[in-house]
Design a protein that fits this description.
alpha+beta, single chain, about 15% strand, globular
């Protein structure tokens, strides 16, 4: 269920990068920080957050071995562009950001493993949503039961082996999430998606979560999906072609993410999101 964050008595703006930080981190990193911090707020908005757990990471532009990650201990409504930590894929802190909070070892192990093994993914999104956990615990393999499956052509699966903490845990996870898959069900654990942008990873997570919610709402967690209710591969492939024709953006997921960033900005969260010219024109026409 979506949550309207303006019910909170205090709004913490998303784009809190100072001119000094902008100069230190550079334009491209600051842009990524703003988008990633916006992603954390949207995670809370959709009710996918799990107190302080779960992570969304983004590769630092121009540095394949560096990623931005949330400070462990902050709620998703507290994460800002400047607060994100910068670490390398060996677990070294490069920049604490604006807080003194550490990063979580489990988050580092999961995300660094995938960022290392999947150079095609600039963002990795791992959530413990209720519907996602329920499906991961009850369903062996997702069947195509709703339109959201059109956007999920290659779903991978990873068996639970306990908390992912050690270096030896990295290889099984990487092996179970090969290209071109961008959606992973971590059995008895939760969901993970990846994308070449934060926006793509978000949009895939949205459709993966919709599929999980469909399973919960229809009762398919407890009983087999009737044969006649499973969408055929032919229907899915033709629908995917039609879906692509409905897009006006150049990157998958941008139009969905922009719409939600605008929603946050309307509520006063000051995302600093790098809007497209189309969105800028729309926002200019609706200024007070």
């Amino acid at each position: 269920m979506a949550r309207f964050l303006t019910n909170a008595q205090r709004i913490i703006k998303i784009d809190d990068i100072t001119p000094e930080q902008e100069e230190k981190w550079g334009e491209e990193e600051c842009k990524t920080r703003r988008i990633l911090a916006t992603a954390y707020r949207l995670t809370h908005y959709f009710g996918w957050d799990d107190i302080i757990y779960g992570h969304i990471t983004a590769r630092v532009p121009g540095h394949d071995d560096q990623i931005l990650i949330n400070p462990h201990g902050l709620h998703y409504t507290e994460i800002t562009a400047a607060s994100l930590l910068k670490i390398d894929t060996s677990g070294n802190i490069i920049d604490h950001g604006s807080t003194k909070f550490p990063f979580q070892p489990v988050g580092y192990t999961i995300h660094s493993a995938i960022h290392t093994s999947r150079p095609d993914l600039a963002c990795v999104w791992h959530m413990h949503s209720r519907a996602g956990i329920a499906l991961s615990a009850a369903v062996t393999k997702i069947q195509a039961v709703c339109q959201a499956n059109v956007e999920l052509p290659n779903i991978s699966y990873h068996d639970y082996r306990g908390q992912i903490l050690r270096d030896e845990d990295r290889e099984p996870l990487s092996r179970d999430f090969p290209a071109p898959s961008k959606a992973l069900v971590m059995r008895n654990h939760g969901l993970l998606t990846g994308g070449k942008t934060v926006e793509e990873a978000f949009t895939i997570m949205y459709f993966l979560h919709q599929t999980c919610q469909c399973y919960v709402d229809t009762g398919y967690l407890h009983s087999p999906v009737p044969h006649g209710k499973v969408l055929s591969r032919e229907v899915l492939e033709s629908s995917l072609e039609g879906s692509a024709e409905c897009r006006h953006d150049t990157e998958y997921g941008v139009q969905e993410f922009e719409a939600l960033a605008r929603l946050l900005d309307y509520q006063g969260f000051q995302t600093g999101y790098p809007y497209s010219e189309l969105s800028k024109s729309f926002l200019d026409s609706h200024k007070d």
